[in-house]
Amino acid sequence: MTGFADALVYLNDPLNWTRRDGILDLLGEHLAISAVAVLAALVLAVPLGVALASSGRGSGAVVVLSNVSRAVPTLALLTLFAVTPIGFGNRATTIALAVFAFPPILTNTYVGFRGVDPDVREAAVGMGMSRWQVVRRVEFPLALPLVMTGLRTAAVQVVATTGLAALVGGGGLGRIVNLGFGQQDYGQIIAGAILIAALALLSELALVILSSAASPGPGRSPLARFRQRTAVGRPEPTAAGVPL
Amino acid sequence: MSAGPGRALALDEAPNPWFDGSYVADNWDTIVGYLGEHVRLTVGAVAIGAAIALPLALLGRRSRLLSGALLGLSTMVYTIPSLAMFAFVFPFTGLSATTVLIGLTAYSLVILVRNFLVGLQSVPDDVREAARGMGYGAARQFCQIDLPLALPTFMAGLRIATVSTVALTTVGVLVGHGGLGQLIYGGFNANFYRAEIVTGSVACVLLALVADVLLAGVQRLLTPWARAVRS
Questions:
Q1: How many domains does one find in chain B?
Q2: Does B229 map to a domain?
Q3: ipTM over 0.90
Q4: For residue B228, is it within any domain?
Q5: CATH code for the domain in which residue B155 is found
Q6: What is the 3-state secondary structure (H, E, C) of A156-222?
Q7: Among candidates B67, B84, B121 on the partner chain, residue whose Cβ is nearest the Cβ of A193
Q8: C-alpha angle with apex B84: A89 to B59, nearest 5 degrees?
Q9: Is B2 within the bounds of a domain?
């Protein structure tokens, strides 16, 4: 258990947090890479998902993409982008992570918009809404819970995976673990692992709260939702949130 | 890394193809060796995970409180990044394949517990009651009632666990036992040797897809009634 005691010592040293390339710097880098990657994926995947869902085509492609994406190791994706002419570093990492975040958001957006009751859509059209109004004011609120699920899945996975970027020359909190392995410093390895795990758990928690706040409808506190989710089991979703 | 305009470094000039057949041919034994390790780790992790998950799911079915606790815990474990997971196990088992096996087992375990529990919960209560009324014992009820009815969900869980374990095994490079991940990471460290990286990545994806197809075939064989209904 020496490693864990050393980890506490490492985490308890203020200098380790505040120095240049210390924990705070790396945390900022970690969050910046993750945020840019998720936002890029969001900007590309949501319109595509809406377009595919409203055209009614491409369901096969979306299913195949969501299934195959689970089989692609994130390490392979990160490494492949690191050896392109982009060069290794944060830019390659961000692109790789955006590619990685794309399928879950696309699939959930697609499924969410496809799941809108056709009667509701017809009623909206009958009330004289334009196509754009139907999408924005009828379909989007109804599909929002699933879109948020996709966003949450993608964001938590990206935050978790950014840690791996350090193996292939990227930044983020993984650097602490990687450096620890390089120096055979158990305390540093464990400290980095604790930070990465805590960050992943916190981002999951934050996004659960965010998605319940964003979802329309009464009385959806995150706690009530959590209770509901734990009481009745659901199958583990794939990377794309759709059971195989 | 980058040379000035009009001047190229030997490094940039050297051919670095994305795929090279001669690399695969020359290093066939190494590739097969890593493939073997990859398969052993995956099969081991999923098998051990299933062996632990089944009793847990059977226990979890007995009370809502227990199943809630199991699902909550599994969500939490699943959220822990693989890098952190291997780093946590590392001080106990060192730079060995056991470290990777324990980490992978933890992930496959939480996926399988979830699916096993859902599968068991989906067995209708009146069917189980009818079986009990007909004098089925606990073991016979599990083998002849629960298992066939929950089998599709069980198999779906096994497929997901297997495919994601194949992908996750690559992270084992952290402790030097990442199976095909060793090729990916090794290629990166060998001056960004693309052929090696691509070979490792493609082999990984193919392995996952082959495993998935194999398990789908097993599922088809085990549930002949599902085919009869569909056709």
A1: 1
A2: no
A3: no
A4: no
A5: 1.10.3720.10
A6: HHHHHHHHHHHHHCCCCCHHHHHHHHHCCCHHHHHHHHHHHHHHHHHHHHHHHHHHHHHCCCCCCCH
A7: B84
A8: 145
A9: no
How confident is the model over A79-121, as pLDDT tens digits? 888 877 777 778 888 988 999 899 999 999 998 998 888 899 8
Q: Give me the residues of A, 68-107, that contact B with CB < 8 A.
A: 68, 70-77, 79-80, 82-83, 87-88
Which residues from B are below 8 Å from A190, CB to CB?
Answer: 87-88, 91
B117 touches chain A (CB under 8 A): yes
Using a CB–CB cutoff of 8 Å, tell me whether B212 touches chain A: yes
Q: What does the alpha-carbon distance between residue A209 and residue A219 come to, in Å, rounded to a whole number?
A: 13
C-alpha closest to that of A74 among A97, A102, A90: A97
The two tokens of residue B5 are 């305009």
Q: Which two tokens stand for residue A119?
A: 């009667």
Short-list A166, A170, A136, A159, CA closest to A206: A159
Question: Domain span at residue B155?
Answer: 17-223
Residue among B64, B72, B168, B164 nearest A205 (CA): B72
pLDDT in tens, B106-132: 999 989 998 999 899 889 989 999 999
Domain contains B12: no
The arrangement of secondary structure in A2-231, i.e. its CATH architecture, is: Orthogonal Bundle (1.10)
Q: Is B65 on the interface with A (CB under 8 A)?
A: no
- ∠ CA(B25), CA(B43), CA(A150), 5° rounding? 95
From B46, B62, B70, B58, select the one nearest B146 (Cα to Cα): B58
